[in-house]
């Protein structure tokens, strides 16, 4: 039973785990665990004293927490994950679609009107089956491959989250968190999405090293519009819904959207003229 569990000291836990280590706390009052790590002296500054704001380059211990020490995880009903941080870290595109279907962000979501059912969960399943992370391959029922739409959408998501981090974080933090390790970069990119979605329901996520609040970055609006555009493209590509000439037009709009987004990143990079190049 839960009340029979024996507490584990932080230092004992750290002793069990080798560094580098990423701790993820997705529970009520998650920020209190982050505070406990700091109070236990897990993080130290260069002069050997405990540091309350460790830099990303001076430590090999990272923490992602879903909410502050006085906050509880949001419970948003059966159509959205109860552990939103975990959902963002493990399935960012699916979680974004869940929020879109539930009406938490984006414009009027008119692209969803092409779906027959008014049930949110059914809408999500339909979208995932058309846009989904994997589809059955022609090579056989046991072979799966990412759909073209999913690969394109994932590429845009990676570019946008990298751009948000690049334009917000210090050069040192960006280099450490987003360029040195593929797994670490992926987790922190997805954490930026969690920061955005949690802010929409009034929750403030916590991390070590502490990242600036990126939840209101203007590129999130771009991501939400691209997400809707991709869904519209998938729906218009259905032979039973739209004539072939319209499907071809939708393909062209999707291609131009991606091209325009690439031009936007290129222009922003020229304006800033920074020595740290934006990753592709």
UniProtKB/TrEMBL annotation:
GO terms for cellular component: cytoplasm; TORC1 complex. It comes from the Eukaryota. InterPro entries: Raptor. One of its GO terms (molecular function) is protein-macromolecule adaptor activity. GO terms for biological process: cellular response to amino acid stimulus; cellular response to starvation; positive regulation of cell growth; regulation of autophagy; TOR signaling. Coiled coil: none annotated. This is Uncharacterized protein. The lineage of its organism: Eukaryota, Sar, Alveolata, Perkinsozoa, Perkinsea.
């Amino acid at each position: 039973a839960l009340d029979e569990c024996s507490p584990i000291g932080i230092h004992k836990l750290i002793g069990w785990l080798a560094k580098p280590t990423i701790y993820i706390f997705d529970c009520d009052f998650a920020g209190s665990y982050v505070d406990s790590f700091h109070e236990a002296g897990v993080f130290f500054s260069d002069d050997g004293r405990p540091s309350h704001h460790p830099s990303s380059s001076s430590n090999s211990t990272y923490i992602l927490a879903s909410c502050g020490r006085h906050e509880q995880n949001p419970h948003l009903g059966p159509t959205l994950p109860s552990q939103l941080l975990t959902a963002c870290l493990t399935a960012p595109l699916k979680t974004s679609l869940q929020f879109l279907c539930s009406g938490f962000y984006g414009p009027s979501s008119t692209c969803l009107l092409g779906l027959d059912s008014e049930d949110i969960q059914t809408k999500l399943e339909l979208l995932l089956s058309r846009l989904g992370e994997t589809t059955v391959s022609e090579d056989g029922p046991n072979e799966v491959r990412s759909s073209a739409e999913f690969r394109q959408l994932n590429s845009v998501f990676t570019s946008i989250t990298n751009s948000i981090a690049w334009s917000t974080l210090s050069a040192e933090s960006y280099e450490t968190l987003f360029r040195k390790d593929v797994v670490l970069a992926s987790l922190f990119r997805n954490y930026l999405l969690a920061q955005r979605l949690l802010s929409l329901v009034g929750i403030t996520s916590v991390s070590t090293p502490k990242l600036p609040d990126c939840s209101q970055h203007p590129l999130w609006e771009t991501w939400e519009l691209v997400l809707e555009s991709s869904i519209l493209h998938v729906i218009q590509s259905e032979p039973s819904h739209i004539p072939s000439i319209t499907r071809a037009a939708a393909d062209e709009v999707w291609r131009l959207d991606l091209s325009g987004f690439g031009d936007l990143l290129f222009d922003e990079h020229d304006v800033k003229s920074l020595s740290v190049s934006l990753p592709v």
